[in-house]
Amino acid sequence: MRRRAAVVAAAVLAASLAAAVPALPASGADYPGVPTSPGPWTPTDPVGPDGFRHPTAATRIWRAESPSVVRIGTSVRGRAIVARRQGPADAPYALLVLGQMHGSEPAGRRVVERVRALRAPGSVQVWTISTMNPDGSVAGTRRNARGVDLNRNFPHRWAPTYTSRIYFPGTSAASEPETRAMMRFLDQLRPDLVVSLHQAFNSVDLGNPKTRAWAARLAAAFGLPTRTVPCRGPCAGTLTGWYNTTYAGFAVTVELPAAVPDAAARRYARAALSVGGRIPTG
Ligand SMILES: [Zn+2]
């Protein structure tokens, strides 16, 4: 019972902390000084030597003027989804490390804790989201509170078909509030590189030709092999697939091993920052 009371107390504390975090509106208009999303990238955006399309002035302004802690949305059960920034607000590049999408894969959250304890490279805004699925995290389930696999719910090649309930993609694309929160935040931030942490395939996903070079760099830094991570059904509705086809930036899935001791979490945190610090030159 004592343990249960402690869990409840921690949940109450987390809820009160979350309530103090400002929400990120769909339009920046409600936030003094934060502009609205700069609009879709175009193939005419300037391309750097490493294939990066440099952020437009509007994106740089959004990044520079955004608060360093933002509540990007709310889960089905009303829990806050929070993003934090480290590094200089006027840094020209942005890295996002997403600790967790599937609540049954806890290691990435610990990696994010370690990232937050480190100094960010000066050239990069480092954004971290501990979990975009706080309900699944509390319940220890892959899916969100409505039984949707968020990594099948994004509107890129979304399909209603699935091979098992654990991959249920939702009733329509972006049907879930957690998916929409991430989409809105990614649209505003436009990270140059998104590192999406999962478990436990113990590899960095090589599945998308666009991101192959960054997958190789991440694999080298993390000390993980590269491979095409299987989707166990249609590879549709994924966050990385949506981001890579919608925006100029790169999104890579990093599958951590099943067991991640503290020393490994620290190592992975340093690895993510070291690769982030190589934007845009690689
Ligand atoms: Zn996963």
In short:
The chain is built from eight helices and eight strands; from the N terminus they run ααβββαβααββαβαβα.
Number of helices: 8
Tally of discrete structural domains? 1
Shape: globular
Largest sheet: 8 strands, mixed
The total beta strand count reads 8
Helical residue percent band:
25-40%
What is the overall pLDDT average? 83
Q: Low-confidence parts lasting 5 or more residues at pLDDT below 50?
A: 12-19, 24-45
User: What molecules are bound to this protein?
Assistant: zinc ion
Rg value: 18 Å
Under CATH, the topology is which?
Aminopeptidase
Order of helices and strands: HHEEEHEHHEEHEHEH
**End-to-end separation:** 52 Å
Range of strand content? 15-25%
The second-level CATH architecture is 3-Layer(aba) Sandwich
Specify the CATH homologous superfamily: Zn peptidases
Question: What is the C-level CATH assignment?
Answer: Alpha Beta
Overall structural class, as computed from helix and strand content, comes to: alpha/beta
